[in-house]
Amino acid sequence: MGFGDKVLFFFSALGAFNGLILSFYFLFFTAKKHLSNYLLGALLLVLSLRIGKSVAYFFDYSLPKIYLQLGLTACFFIGPFLYFFVKSEIQQIQKLPKWWIAQLGFWLLIILVVGILYPYQSVPYLWGHYIIPLIYLQWGIYIVFSGAVIWPILKKILQKESLKIFEKWILTIFGGVFLLFTSYVWAILNITKGSYIFGALYFSIIIYLVVFILLYHKKTNDLSSFSTQKYVDKKLDAQEAELIIDKLKKAMKEKTLFKNPNLKLNDLAKEINLSGHQLSQLLNDYLEKNFSLFVNEYRIEEACKMLSMNVPLTIDAIGDEVGFNSKSTFFAAFKKIKGLTPSAYQKQKTPDL
What we know:
Blueprint: H1 3-29, H2 35-59, H3 65-90, H4 98-117, H5 124-149, H6 151-158, H7 165-188, H8 195-217, H9 238-254, H10 265-271, H11 276-287, H12 291-309, H13 315-321, H14 327-338, H15 342-349
């Protein structure tokens, strides 16, 4: 191996090494345990396997074909993990959806079945002409899906709007994976001689350089969309505030958080990854109500449903059921919001009682 090859080997292998370290960091050592961090760690791990295979095989064609097969099958997870990472960041998903788990399970099953029944060592022609093109087709489809998710960010670039830190972070990861994908497809089509190793080289020089610059200038927590709500002295724009409020209302209804009589401002804020101060400011600025009124409106709405349905509970028990910790608080909140007492409301809605 000449000096030039040694330099090429070093820089291309650096991508696999850095990817491995960063994958462990995001999987095990990052301070904030967001789903997107775990997905990014998994993405970097499979990318490292794919890049490592490329580097090893490019400089040593005598390697057993099992290494080639492992590197190629890792590509089955690059696309899904990229898509899941992008979507979890954009939509602030905190729990891995069952549909995503099913997809990963499906691709794992495909890998095991094909790998056992048709190993690369035994049927290289089948792999070269059918399986490998299908692998890259699957990867490309997930890149298209990911591109659709980040389209609003791309539109901001076209409209020359400024991007948030987490949006730049998402574009960096997406752009790196897209560049890597393009390099490998370029190599498969044999458009440029030596382009096969360029994927690993580009990934090493560009992606990890940018990643380390981002990590140097900003804490990892600041790179996530889950930290974008830090607007103590700055109002959100109407569209952004509306998205957060929708998320807040969804959490209140689906999890019936208001039924907890000890619900605190900070408890509710954690549900949507805000601080207590941020949530208080959001409620005041965009809903023009304080925390107590916001929660009590949900409690009173639920109480009204129960009073109208003639449930077999006393009025005091209904107050307890919807989250009030005292009769006086329940009656005072009910009259403030509805303009009459619970018993008067019940008589109005059920006159035959």
